[in-house]
Specification:
The protein is an all-alpha fold. It has 13 helices and no strands.
Length: 302
């Protein structure tokens, strides 16, 4: 396959990931956060394990300490991130959540500097400042009353917490994959499984009988979209692109996610996109580029 076709596939992948913010916003109207987390990855399990077994038949089953590493990654990244993500969507817009989510590479870089002894160059520092300035504009919309009272939308705070969880996952997964000889596909498959298993008692606590009879076909289709397109197909195409064009070039397409989300949010959900959110979005994308230009292998939240 030519490089141009691979790049086109990555554009579609960014579109798939952006759709998770739209369908997630729709789904939270019918399902509570733990249930959404549970069903999203339950439906994805058969596909991702089929892929794992077909590609890594000789070493698809973890051994020894690999299980401990996968348990930690499953809790920190997949479970915590998605519960916080779906909780955030109950209070904030898809636009805000996607733009805050776009800071993940920058936050990962900052955490790597603070806790993993990576160097902080001048360009990285400027990029971090740019990105967090953009988040500040998005969260406050330049409303001085909000700024003076420090009263922010709880959904934005939850989304930022979700991004912190994913940033920690990105750093730990990079370390654990090297230390315990874990492949990206094995990590993805088993963190999905662990997330599903951990979610079960919380789903029971949400009393499924109180909401399942009221759910619509559109609610279930939203979950299926997140399971198949955003989780399985998105990962598969990204993995293929990394093999063909390299991690650095594949990571560039992640910057399209908030742009696609903004367009879909305005036309599908009717959300507003203000001038200050536009400035914030440009600031975040610029900051991400500057802070991660030499560190493109960092994973992104979606």
């Amino acid at each position: 396959m030519s490089e141009n076709k691979v790049c086109l596939l990555m554009v579609f992948t960014a579109l798939f990931w952006s759709g998770a913010f739209i369908t997630g916003k729709m789904a939270v109207l019918e399902f509570p956060p733990f249930a959404l987390t549970f069903f999203r990855f339950l439906f994805a399990l058969p596909f991702i394990f089929f892929l794992l077994y077909s590609r890594e038949k000789e070493k698809w089953l973890p051994k020894g300490r690999q299980w401990i590493a996968l348990m930690i990654l499953g809790v920190v990244g997949t479970f915590f991130y998605h519960v916080l993500f779906f909780s955030a969507l109950r209070y904030t817009t898809a636009i805000n959540s996607s733009l805050i989510g776009a800071t993940n590479p920058v936050l990962t870089t900052l955490m790597a500097v603070l806790f993993f002894n990576e160097s902080l160059t001048k360009k990285r520092l400027i990029g971090i400042i740019f990105s967090f300035s953009g988040v500040f504009l998005i969260v406050t919309n330049a409303d001085w009353q909000l700024i003076s009272t420090f009263s922010f939308n709880p959904g934005d705070v939850l989304m930022f917490s979700a991004v912190m969880s994913w940033a920690l996952y990105a750093l730990l997964s990079r370390s654990y994959m090297q230390k315990y000889s874990l492949s990206p596909l094995m990590v993805t498959s088993y963190t999905f499984l662990i997330c599903v298993l951990i979610s079960i008692p919380f789903v029971i606590g949400e009393n499924p009988a109180s909401y399942l009879p009221k759910t619509s076909v559109y609610g279930w289709l939203s979950i299926l979209y997140m399971s198949i397109f955003a989780s399985v197909l998105g990962y598969l195409i990204q993995l293929f692109a990394i093999e063909k064009i390299g991690a650095s070039r594949a990571a560039v397409f992640v910057n399209l996610v908030p742009i696609f989300t903004i367009i879909q949010s305005v036309f599908i959900l009717g959300e507003s996109f203000t001038f200050f959110k536009c400035i914030g979005a440009l600031s975040i994308i610029t900051g991400v580029y500057m802070a991660t230009r030499s560190d493109r292998q960092v994973q992104v939240s979606k």
